[in-house]
Amino acid sequence: MKDTYDSIVVGSGPSGAAAAKKLTDEGAKVLVLEKKKLPRYKICSGIIFKKSQEITERYFGKIPDSVYVKPKLLKGVRFWSSDENYSDWPFSKNNEGAPNIWRSEYDYWLISNSGAEVVDCSEFKGFEIENNVINVHYFDSSKNKLHQVKCRYLVSAEGSKSKIRAMLSPEFERNLKWFIAYQNYYEGQSQLDPYFYHGFLDQKYGEVYAWFSVKDDLQVFGTSVRKGGKVFPCLSTYRQMLEKVHGLTLKKLIRKTSCLGNNMCTTGNFYLGKGNILLVGEAAGFLNAFGEGISCALSSGLFAAEAICTGSKPGADVISVYTELTKKERRQTTVSWKLGAKIAGRDLMPL
Ligand SMILES: Cc1cc2nc3c(=O)[nH]c(=O)nc-3n(C[C@H](O)[C@H](O)[C@H](O)COP(=O)(O)OP(=O)(O)OC[C@H]3O[C@@H](n4cnc5c(N)ncnc54)[C@H](O)[C@@H]3O)c2cc1C
């Protein structure tokens, strides 16, 4: 490993992979730090929307078969306004369907093809800046050792709980409101159409919303409520409804997972960075309605890389360039939540 890079990207999800790919394509020396062992599990429904698929194919190539689950393509979202009534929203006009994938495999494929040097089990811990050089500290849990590396640009692709964002602006962090998402994977079966992703909008199943899909014959369902809210009563009411109304029978529990998200996306309160430190993906607040976040993670990663490449010229300001480049994407994120609220007939993030 070298100890000086043009850019260091923290996080190996889609936003980090996209930033790393574009930077290396432009000839930069890039290091990606990932705190988990790769390929790492990521809580997600794993649906690749059209825009995500287009960006993926343009920059990384065709999504390999090894990344897909069964059923391979989903037709659309089935929104349930009550236990029996639904409306269908197809994923594409030509009914091609959207790829149904495991995030562990998709993300690992992306980052492995980014051209960057990737080190896993390496958690970002902090930084200091001296003479325009950023000195990054990280902890290598495989060797139980602290390391330091230097770079000119630092990209936080750490997801919703970005340490870098909290370090840059503790006050911004204090004002955030959080939700918790909880997801279970079971062996079993149900009568819900496995070719659809199902969203249940009745708030008794989750203050944000509740969802169901099938992945490699596993019954995957989850819900989300405000942090500190009553997630388990909601999940239990939801599960009982799925059992009673939709014939869900559960055999063996395979995995239980949870994560935190925040209200940056719904409030339009993005945090794009400071100086030569840029935030991308969920770290910056990019997350569309109903939790679709891969497309804006990829595009914000690409925009950050473009800003670094064009904004690094004398007299240019990288954050201003990045702010301008993401204008449309930020507007789309905000609009998507308004549209989502229309579909749901209520505020989708009542935090
Ligand atoms: C239940 C659920 C279902 C979803 N379903 C979909 C879906 O079907 N389709 C879709 O498009 N979106 C979906 N999303 C949203 C999507 O998962 C996220 O928006 C997307 O993963 C954001 O990408 P990212 O690169 O910003 O962050 P992440 O994918 O979260 O990646 C962040 C990475 O940074 C690493 N990291 C964090 N901190 C550090 C640190 N200090 N040091 C080193 N590494 C660090 C993490 O381990 C992680 O690997 C879903 C989200 C949830 C919660």
Please give a structural write-up:
It is a single chain. Helix content is 31%, strand content 33%. The chain has 2 domains: 4-46 and 102-175 and 264-344, FAD/NAD(P)-binding domain (3-Layer(bba) Sandwich); 178-262. The model has no long low-confidence stretch (mean pLDDT 96). It has helices at 14-25, 50-60, 103-112, 163-168, 170-174, 231-246, 264-267, 294-311, 318-325, 327-344; strands at 4-10, 30-33, 68-74, 76-80, 86-90, 98-101, 117-119, 122-130, 133-140, 145-156, 178-189, 196-200, 210-215, 218-226, 249-262, 273-274, 277-279. Helix 1 (14-25) runs parallel beside helix 8, helix 2 packs across helix 8 (294-311) and helix 8 (294-311) runs antiparallel to helix 9 (318-325). It is an alpha/beta fold and 351 residues long. It is globular. Strands 1, 2, 7, 8, 9, 10, 16 and 17 form an 8-stranded mixed beta sheet that branches. The chain has a 7-stranded mixed beta sheet with strand order 5-4-12-13-14-11-15, with helices on one face.
Return the CATH topology of the largest domain. Answer: FAD/NAD(P)-binding domain
**What portion of residues belong to β-strands?**
25-35%
Averaging pLDDT over every residue, what do you get?
Answer: 96
**What is the H/E order?**
EHEHEEEEHEEEEHHEEEEHEHEEHHH
> Cofactors and ligands present?
flavin-adenine dinucleotide
DSSP summary, beta strand count: 17
Can you summarize the main beta sheet? 8 strands, mixed
Instruction: State the end-to-end CA separation.
Output: 44 Å
Shape: globular
CATH superfamily of the largest domain: FAD/NAD(P)-binding domain
